[in-house]
Amino acid sequence: MTATLVISKAALPILAVLSALSLSSAHAKEGTSAYARFQERHAMQNSLQAGLEYDSNVYKKYGGSEDDFLTRLLVKSRGRAFRTDQWQLRWNYQGGGKVFFREGPQSLLIQYFEAPVSFRPLETVRFIITPEVKVQNERNNLDAAAAVADDVNEDYTSVSARLEIPWELPGGFLLQPGGAYTRFVFPPRDEYSFHREEGTLLLRKNLGEQLIAGGCFAYNRQQFDASPREDDEIEGAAFFQYTSGWIASLRYTFEKGYSSDDRFDFTNHKISLLLSVPFGSRAEPDSDESEGEPMFAFHVLATLQLKEFPGVFAETTEGIRYLLTDAEDDNFNSVLVKFTYHPTSFLAIESKYTRYSNELSNQQSSFSRNLVYSGVRYSF
To answer: In this structure, is residue 222 part of a structural domain?
Structure first.
């Protein structure tokens, strides 16, 4: 009886999207409805996404081997609340969750919301302030009864505000100073809670219509709640992006970390590659348009990190903190390969493979995690 109940709950996200798809014919007839007019006026884009995923390392442990299947559900809504000649307010909401078939203690809910406010006092200058909040909740106490002992909840709340000042300069240059403040609260382990201040400076140049090159500098300071530890990090990066129907970008980042506990000092060389290729067309043979919207899309995102700590203690301790606080991208190598099929303008069928690991690094403790996902996305 218990197994049947778990499987039924895991199937709910899939059933939600199937129910939404059953309304697609009604959606197609709403072109003149009040909803369609509201959607157009506010540039609103909504979507409902659900699918089945395989996770090779459910508890995100070094040397972990507990695997499981799960279902994912994600609802997105973004748009423009209002706009004038100088002011604009937008919203971006994402809410969803994961339901595991066997490892129920790892099921969780995630909520994210941001509301960027933009003010343009001059034609070439804008001020953008973006408050945002993200909450993750596993909805249980401790996972002590789970398959992996000593596991803890990955509950957290992150509240931040970001300021960006894009300034368009002659010659195709853009200069953008900025700053941010983040408050991160992780109740299961107070030593992971922190507040952080950041400062950034970006310089970008358009090299023709298809190529962009630039660089940026960043400094951040992070103070932890339950210890006297304070970290300073300096970052410098250079990037190139080429766009011609498809998108390719390459970025190199150098990071140097200084901690009041010198065991957590680090040096990191990060190389990131992005490739996005749409292809095919949904245009009818007798259509007046030579090309329609792309029917297929192929995406690759890969990051290699050569991160060095003074000793094995910091490598493993920091690695665990990054994993539990949903910050794998700050510490591990990753590769994502995604294929999307768009049979209609409002329906997408997606397959995705993601891998996190510390391969090609000097870390002594082995970590890897593979995620294989297939699902559907319905836009309305």
So the answer is: no
Domains identified in the chain, total number: 1
Strands 125-137 and 108-114, by their bridges, are antiparallel
Other Cβ atoms less than 10 A from the Cβ of 348: the count is: 18
What is the tens place of the pLDDT at every residue in 15-37? Answer: 555 555 555 544 544 455 887 88
118 falls within a domain: yes
Rounded distance between C-alpha atoms, residue 343 and residue 350, angstroms = 11
139-160: average pLDDT: 69
In the predicted structure, residue 266 carries a pLDDT above the cut 70: yes
Q: Is residue 305 part of a domain?
A: no
pTM exceeds 0.70, yes or no: yes
Decide: helix, strand or coil at residue 380. Answer: coil
Residue 335 CA, chain-centre distance (Å), reads 14
Q: What residue numbers bound the domain in which 127 lies?
A: 1-154
* 57 close to 368: Cβ distance less than 8 angstroms: yes
Residue 213: inside a domain: no
Taking phi first (over 0 means left), then psi (-120 to 50 degrees means alpha), and beta for anything else, what does residue 323 get? alpha
Q: Please write the tens of the pLDDT for every residue from 50-86.
A: 999 999 999 999 887 799 999 999 999 999 999 999 9
Reference 376, options 337, 343, 354, 332; nearest CA is 343
- In DSSP notation, 185-229 reads E-TT-GGG-EEEEEEEEEEEEEETTTEEEEEEEEEEEEEESSSS-
Amino acid letter for position 38: F
Lowest-confidence segment of 23-32, 35-44, 148-157 by average pLDDT? 23-32
Which CA distances in Å does 253 have to 248, 265, 271?
A: 17, 17, 6
Query: Which H/E stretch holds residue 104?
Result: none
Is residue 373 within 8 A of residue 348, CB to CB? The reply is no
Backbone angles phi, psi at 24, to 5 degrees: -60, -35
pLDDT higher than threshold 60 for residue 144: no
SS (H, E, C) 270-322: EEEEEEEEEECCCCCCCCCCCCCCCCEEEEEEEEEEEEECCCHHHHHHHHHHH
The widest CA-to-CA distance across the chain, in whole angstroms, is 70
